[in-house]
Amino acid sequence: MTIIGTLAYCILGTLLLCVAAEDEEPQIGVDDSLWYPYDETLVLKPLPNNDLLVSFSFQLQSEPFNPAISSMSFDAYEHYTTFPRAIPPLLESTGTRQFHLRFTRGFWDALSWGQLPHAGKQAGASGVELWSQVQATDQEQAFLNWKKLANSLSGLFCSSLNFIDESRTTFPRQSYVSDIVSPLFNDTEKLYLMRASLPNEPICTENLTPFIKLLPTRGKSGLTSLLDGHKLFDSLWNSISLDIATVCPEDEGSLCHYEMEAHVEMVAHVPSALARNERPIPKPLDGNTLRCDTEKPFDSYQCFPLPEPSEAHFKLSQLFARPINNGNLFANRPTRICADVDGSTWTAFLSVNDTIFSTHDNCFDLSNDQNESDIGYDFILESTDTTRVTPIVPVPIHVSRSLTGNGQDRGGMRIVFHNDKDTAVKLIYFESLPWFMRVYLSSLQITSTISPQLQENDVILDKYYLQAADRLRPAHLELTMLIPANADIVMTYQFDKALLQFAEYPPDANHGFEIDAAVITVLSLESSSALYELRTSTLLLSLSTPDFSMPYNVIILTSTIMGLIFGMLYNLMVKRMVTVEEADKITFQSGLKYKLLKLKEKFLKNKKTKTD
Amino acid sequence: MSNANLRKWVGFCFIAIYIFVGIPLWYKLTTVYRAPLPVKYIESLQKNKFQDIHLVIPVYVRSDTYRFPDIHDAIQVQVNHLLNSQEQQIPWSLQVLPYNESMQQANSEDNQFHVVTLVLDDFIGYSSAYDTKETIVYYDDAAVLSNDLPFFVAQTLVEHTFQLEWTHLNKTHESATTNNNVAISYDPNIHLSITLLSGDGNPVAWEIEPTLTDYFSPFRKLLSPLVNLTVDSSIVYHNDLNLHSLNGSYSNVTWFDLSHTIDLSELSSMTYYPEDSALNLAVVFPSASSTPDGLAFINGTRISDGLSALDWNSYLVPQWGVIIINKMPLKPNSVISEDYLEPMMYRFASDIFQLLGLTEGSQDLLSPYITIDSFKRLTTLQNLDKSVETLWSLVKLTQQFQGMSIPHEVSDNVLEALDLRFQIIDLLNDPGKGGDMVWNNALHLSNELVKLCETAFFNGEMVQQNFFPQEHMIAVYLPLLGPISAVMFFGFYNVMKEKDHKNEKNGIEREVTEEKLELKEAQNLHAIDGENEL
C-alpha cells in the first residue's frame, strides 16, 4: 500500500506540480533594469490673488492581453503589476471599452485663472460625471452593461453612481468624443457612448481613498503620499478624474492593453491654507496682528484691511501637512515635480535632508534611491511679488446659464455666450435636462448685443433635440453653434415644471432639484477638432413640493366627511320617526322630575295605607 | 309602529351588504397576489430529503488471466452484504457487471467507467490508477481456491474505491451535506487570485506566467469537470498584511497571534470578480525597512525529505485561501524564479483540494480521478439538499409573511426546479452505464437547480420588503371604515333593541292607566283621607 501510495504521489507530483529533487537552492535573482509602466508628475502653478493650482497626474498601463482568449481557457492567466486589479474584470464583464469618471467640486474662476488645466478635458461638472463607451448588440443591452458598470463603480468609489438610471442617461452624438479610438472585439456588435451625471453628489474623502488605493504606490510613497482628503477638499476648486481606455496598437498584432490616466487637481488660496495650519479652529485674530491700512482712519475700533501681502514663502509640506515620501520606486521615469512660475519674481527649491536644490527650469526629478533619513522630500516656493504669475491663457468663450421666471408651474432658461475674441467661435452646446423640465423648443430664441437682425440660423448651425419621456429619459439638446466675434449671444427657452409623484421626491425636496451642467466643446474652425471643454455651473430648480403629511390628512378628512354623510343617511333610514307630542311625552316620562313625582306618589300611598 | 319591521329590514340589509359584499370586495381589492406553491410537497421533501433517491453506481469487472463467468454476481452479493452492514443516510448501491467488448469501445477518455481489473500475482493487494477510474485487484491462486476473491474485491470497492461515498453517505457521518469549516461552499465557477505582496515599494518581478502554465494548467484541466477556475496574478506593493507589527520581542509566534494580526482587508475589498466565489494565494515578503533581518517566527517548510528547508511557512486561512509568509524581505529589483515558486504552487495545489472540500485534513489525493468522480456525485447530492433547503426557506418565508406577494415567476421557478430535481434523481437512480458523462450531466443539472431555486428565493418583488404590511393597510382604512362600521352596527343594535323598549314603554303606560283608574275609583268613593277634613 505504501509503495503504491508513494507511486501515485510521484505521478501526482509529475502532473500537477513537479517537485524535482534538485540540489541547487531556489534563487531570487536581481534584475537592475526592472521597471513597470508608471508615471507621476506634480505641477504647481501660482495663480493671481495668491491662489495656487496643484496638479497631480498619474499614468499607468496594464500588461498586454489577447481579447480573443477566454479567461476560462486552461492556459489563460491575467497578470497585473502596477495596473489596479479591480478595473479590468469590470471592463470585461460589462463590455466597456473606455470610461471616464470625474469628481469635481467648487467654482473655477475663469476670469482670473484663465483656462482650465488640460484644456478642460479632465475637469467635470460639479458633482460626479461618468461617460463610457460600451460594446453591445443593441441599445438595450448597452444600457444594461452601463447600469452594471455604474453600480460597480459606485461600490468601488463609495459614491452614489448607482442612482444613475435611464432617466439620467443620455447618448451624446457629438460631444464627449474621445481622442482614443476604442477597438471593437466583436464585429456584429456596436459601440455605444453613454453619459450621466449626478450634480448634487458631495465629493469627499471616501471617494479619494479608493482612488489612492488604485494607484500602485497606495499613498505610501511618491506623490500619492501627499494626497490627504482634509487638505484636498479644503480648497476653492478640486477635481479628481479617472480615464480608462482599451488600446490595441497595430504594431502589437492581436494584443491589447488598458491605459489609465488619473488626475487630482485643486486650487488653494495659499494664505488661508497656511493660516489653517496655525489656527485649525478659526477664531478672531488679536488686534495687534491685524493688518490695517494706517493711511485710512485707524484706531482700536476701526481697521481698513490692507490687501494681502505680495511676498510669499511656503513649503509644500505646509500645504499638505506632510512631506513627499520618496519617489515612486518602480518606474523607469522618476517622479517629477515642476513649478510653472514667473522666473523674475518666483523661485522654486527642492529640499532633501536639509539640503536645498534648484534647477534652471524649476523641474525636479526625485531620485529612486531610498531616502535614508525618512524626512522625505519637500518643495519650497518663494516669491517677492506674488501678483506676477505666468501669463494667464484666456478662455475661448465664457458661458453662463441661469434660470428665469417665477412661480412653480413654468420657468425659463437663459444662456449667455460671451465671445471677447476677434474671431468667431464654433462650439457644441450639450445639455441634458431632467424629464420634469418640459422644454418648449419652439420658444428657443437667440438675441444678440451686436445686431438685432441676427437670425437663429446664423448662430445655430445644427440642432439635435430628443424630447424627454416621463421617467424614462432626459431631454437631450445638442447644438452646434457659431458665436460671432466680439459678441454676446443670449439663448432663451421656456419650460413647464412637471409635478412629481409622491414617492419621487428626494429627501429635503424643498432644497430644490440640481440640474446638470451644460457642456460646451469649443471646436477648431478649420478641422472641427475639440480645442477646449468647459462646463457651466449647475442650477437649482425649485419644484412645487407637497406637504408630505398631506395624504394622511386627506385620508382622514375625506373619511370623516364620508362617515358623517353616511351616518346621517343611515340614521334617517333606520331610526324611528315620532311626532313632537310623542317625543315630548317620552321626554317627560323619561325625565328626573317624573321619577321624583312617582316616588312621592308611592310615599303618599304608603302613608295612606298606614293611617288606614 | 308600522314601519318598525321595515326599518329592521333596512338595517339588516346594510349589515348584509357590509358583510357579504363589502368585506369580500375590500379583501379582494387590498389583497396581494400570492401564487400557489406546492407547500405540502416541499415540506415532505424537507422532512425526508432523500426519500426518492437510491444512488446506483455501475462497476465493471474485468479479468484477463482467468475467466470467471459468475464473479460479478458473487461480488454483487458480497457488496450488498457489506453495504447492508451499515445504516445508510442516503441509500446507495454498486451494480457489479461483467466487462465486455462493447464497453471497451464506449470507454473513451471523456467518458470513463469504473472498472475493476483482476490481475493474477504473487500477493493479494490492490491499487488505484492515477489517471483513470480503474481499480486493480491483485490475487493469487490460493485466494481463488478458497473463494476469497469476491469478498476481497467487494471490500476493495466499498472501502477504498468508493471510500468517499462509504464515509459520507452513512448515518454515523455528521452530515453528508454540511460543509467543514475550511472548505468554501461549492460553486461551479471559482476565481483564483494569486498575489505577491511586498512590504516595500521597490520593483519586484516573478516568473508567474511560466510557473502557472507549467504547473497550474494541468491542474485546472483536471478539476474542470468539477469547477472552472479562472486565475489572475498581481503584485501589490507597500502591503505586508500588517506583519511588521508582529516582529516584536517574542520569536515564537503562533497561528493564533498571526490570525489576530494579519489584515486581509485590502486583498478582499477593491476587487471585482464576475464569479461568485474566490480563493486566494498571498505570497508575502516582509518590509526591509521594518524587518531587515527577516521574520524570526518563520522557521521554514520541508516539502519532501530530499530537500532542505525552504524559507517560508504556509498558512491555510479557512474559506479564504492560503498565505505564504517568506522569512526574508526582497531586495530591490528582485526577480523570483520559477524554481522558488514551484514548491509554493505544490503546497497551494494540495491546499486547494482542502479548500474545495475534496480532501479533509492534510491527507494526500492518491487517485484524483476516482475522488473527483465521487465528489461529483456527492456534490450533486449536496446540491439537491441545498436546493430543497432553499425551497423550504422560500416556503417558510411566504408562510411567515402572509402579506407578502408571491409573483407568478416564483411559482414557475419552483415547479421547474422540482421537475429538474426529478430529472437529476432519474439520472442518479438509473445512470445507464455510469460513464463520466452521466455524472457530469447530473452535476451540471444540479448546479442549474441550485441557481433556479435561488432565483425563486431572491425574486426582487418578493424579498425587497416592498410589500404592503397589514398594519399599514389598517391604518389607512381605519379612518373610513371605523366611523361607518360604528354607525352601522350601533344603529342596527338600536333598531333591534327597539322592541324591548316598546314593550317596556307599554308596561309603563299600562301602569299609568292602572293608577289613573285607581285614582278615579277612589274619587268616586270619596275615600281619600283628609279630603273632607280639608
Automatic annotation (TrEMBL), chain A:
<keyword id="KW-0732">Signal</keyword>
<dbReference type="GO" id="GO:0042765">
    <property type="term" value="C:GPI-anchor transamidase complex"/>
</dbReference>
<keyword id="KW-1133">Transmembrane helix</keyword>
<feature type="transmembrane region" description="Helical">
    <location>
        <begin position="550"/>
        <end position="570"/>
    </location>
</feature>
<keyword id="KW-0472">Membrane</keyword>
<dbReference type="InterPro" id="IPR007245">
    <property type="entry name" value="PIG-T"/>
</dbReference>
<dbReference type="Pfam" id="PF04113">
    <property type="entry name" value="Gpi16"/>
</dbReference>
<feature type="signal peptide">
    <location>
        <begin position="1"/>
        <end position="21"/>
    </location>
</feature>
<dbReference type="GO" id="GO:0016255">
    <property type="term" value="P:attachment of GPI anchor to protein"/>
</dbReference>
<protein>
    <recommendedName>
        <fullName>Gpi16p</fullName>
    </recommendedName>
</protein>
<keyword id="KW-0812">Transmembrane</keyword>
From TrEMBL, chain B:
<keyword id="KW-0175">Coiled coil</keyword>
<dbReference type="GO" id="GO:0042765">
    <property type="term" value="C:GPI-anchor transamidase complex"/>
</dbReference>
<dbReference type="GO" id="GO:0006506">
    <property type="term" value="P:GPI anchor biosynthetic process"/>
</dbReference>
<comment type="pathway">
    <text>Glycolipid biosynthesis; glycosylphosphatidylinositol-anchor biosynthesis.</text>
</comment>
<dbReference type="Pfam" id="PF10510">
    <property type="entry name" value="PIG-S"/>
</dbReference>
<keyword id="KW-0472">Membrane</keyword>
<keyword id="KW-0337">GPI-anchor biosynthesis</keyword>
<feature type="transmembrane region" description="Helical">
    <location>
        <begin position="9"/>
        <end position="27"/>
    </location>
</feature>
<feature type="transmembrane region" description="Helical">
    <location>
        <begin position="474"/>
        <end position="495"/>
    </location>
</feature>
<dbReference type="InterPro" id="IPR019540">
    <property type="entry name" value="PtdIno-glycan_biosynth_class_S"/>
</dbReference>
<keyword id="KW-0325">Glycoprotein</keyword>
<comment type="similarity">
    <text>Belongs to the PIGS family.</text>
</comment>
<keyword id="KW-0812">Transmembrane</keyword>
<feature type="coiled-coil region">
    <location>
        <begin position="498"/>
        <end position="525"/>
    </location>
</feature>
<keyword id="KW-0256">Endoplasmic reticulum</keyword>
<protein>
    <recommendedName>
        <fullName>Gpi17p</fullName>
    </recommendedName>
</protein>
<keyword id="KW-1133">Transmembrane helix</keyword>
<dbReference type="GO" id="GO:0016255">
    <property type="term" value="P:attachment of GPI anchor to protein"/>
</dbReference>
